[in-house]
Amino acid sequence: MVENAADATLVRLDRSALGEAKSLLFHAYRHEPTFQYLFDSNRAGYDQRVRATLREGLELHFANGQDAIGITEDDVLVAVAFISCPGSRIALVDQFNWRIKMMLTAGLSSTRRYIEYHDQVQAVLPKDLHHHLPFIAVHPKYQSQGYGRMLISAVENICRESPGTCGIGLDTGNTRYLNFYLKLGFEKVGEVKIGNVVETVLFKRVN
Questions:
Q1: Each residue's pLDDT tens digit, 85-143
Q2: C-beta of residue 182 within 8 angstroms of C-beta of residue 174
Q3: Helix 46-63 and helix 96-105: axis angle, to 10°?
Q4: Which of 111, 130, 149, 162 is a Cys-bridge partner for 102, taking CB atoms 3.0 to 4.6 Å apart?
Q5: How is the chain split into domains, by residue range?
Q6: Please, what sign has the CA dihedral across residues 173, 179, 185, 190?
Q7: Model-level pTM?
Q8: What residues contact 140, with CB distance under 8 A and at least 6 apart?
Q9: pLDDT in tens, 70-96
Q10: Which CATH class name applies to 2-165?
């Protein structure tokens, strides 16, 4: 899949893009209230715990053959979205190697919090087969240029090409992003309390 919009190019990503994607996601998520709670931003080593979580999550994502798309400008990756396919949503509690690596790098308490958060979000989403969007980010320099909408549109197209899926699920603890998703047709299906953060769980049906 390659599409052009002005100077931007939409492409499918493989494992060779892991380094760039991890860096982009780190800068997008390290200031998010949910991540700050999950990985205890008040304790030394916060950045390392966030980096470790993203690294292990992306490694697992690619190892399980899940979809990833990106937007490039002048061959620089400026936006990414990682999509978990229906029927392949990874149960983190069953991923023994992932848990061991997470505990060794992010720590036991952060790993427990992350698994609890993951399970709570999954419990709110529809039980029907659906795609899930665990990570999405646009570099700050390239925000407000329509790249977020471009990513979501590409994700919707992937869903339409996949038989049996009923839509896309995601969650956010950031009110700014909440309004963005609501404008794109996502509906609020529930809330999850993550420490002192209220995480909104959203879903969009895609026909």
A1: 875 555 665 677 888 888 888 899 999 999 999 889 989 998 888 899 999 999 988 98
A2: no
A3: 160
A4: 111
A5: 2-165
A6: positive
A7: 0.89
A8: 27
A9: 999 988 999 999 998 875 555 665 677
A10: alpha beta
